[in-house]
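Morning. Coffee machine broken again, so started the prediction first thing and wrote up yesterday's gels while waiting. Chain of 391 residues, entered below exactly as on the submission form.
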Amino acid sequence: MANSNLKEAKAAKNDEFYTQFHDIEIEMNAYLEYDPNVFRGKTILLPCDDPEWSNFTRFFAAKFDELGLKKLISTSYAPDSKKYKTPYQPSLFEQEAPQFDSTKTSVKGKIFVLEQDKSGDGRINIDDLEWEYLEGDGDFRSKEVTKLRDEADFIITNPPFSLFREFLAWIMEGEKKFIIIGNMNCITYKEVFPLIMNNKIWLGIPFPGGNAYFRPAMQNDYAVGVYDEDTNLVKFRNCIWLTNVDHGRRHQPLSLMTIADNLRYSKHKEIRGKETYDHYDNYDAIEVPFTDAIPSDYDGVMGVPISFLDKYCPEQFEILGITKAWFGSASKIYPEQIQVDRHGKESKVTKLNDGAVLLHSEVPQNETYYMVEGKYYTQVYARVLIRHIKS
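Came back before lunch.
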């Protein structure tokens, strides 16, 4: 349900999800544990981030002195420019400021800057935050915000779901360090995966328990089924932190069993008791459906779930590719196919021409399968192709 709701939110252009303070704190602490001075003397830009609602500015403002920041910049997006319209009322914070302008509040973005002790209390915190209206609506692609990007050392935010590809390209164009939130499926994007494969970007620390909870701007139809009225939070299962900032977990190798031990002792029924691992029909690789089932003594290519990447250690494995047609990997072209769903309903499709395919000697049970020229096949989800790095 969470995955479908995230897709619906993207389709509706509703990007109003706010990250929890403690999730931000957990993630930033991972980088600070690896390098306590990672943010010292740096300028951090938080685009798509209004301190009146967002916790990113609150976190870095509270930690400004402790982290040794040089400057903190936040920008917000004008309400009237959002494609997904919600009722808008200026906050008391804005209305009580001397620079408040009723003609600008809904059509202009805002910029918030923190860099000095304005209150005279001897420390820099959120009370010293200064703000003004931007010339434009605060779109990150504008020259105005791009200039702020060029000034910054780090870009940190939860960007719009619907503009993730463009947002990441904007960051990479500026050659900036970044820590952002995205949909797990972004790993398979042709704009993203090559960067991961070449170790230019990687995953951050997973959300606790694999669940990401965000506060919606308002209760909307897309939240039905995952919206919690008691907490006013929406749960998603497939969100990740994506970054090019190093952290310690990234260099912790996985503890693995041998092929023989996996086939005998694995907790997964898909592995335990088999004579060998399944081999793809259209890739020279074995199918490893679970990260903890990766064999320690297999020298060939293995197809693993994309969730493997939050445990990926570049000193232990090399990433060779992904089972997606856009990647250009050699993939067998299948003729006309008949898809049979788990209820026995048949339909003509062409799905097997993109992805990793398993050939079966018998009709697969309790899952969708495909018939091609009298043979039976199933197609697995997107797989990352990896290989052990030999000592």
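Residues 278 and 287 are 5 Å apart (CA to CA). Going to sketch it on the whiteboard this afternoon.
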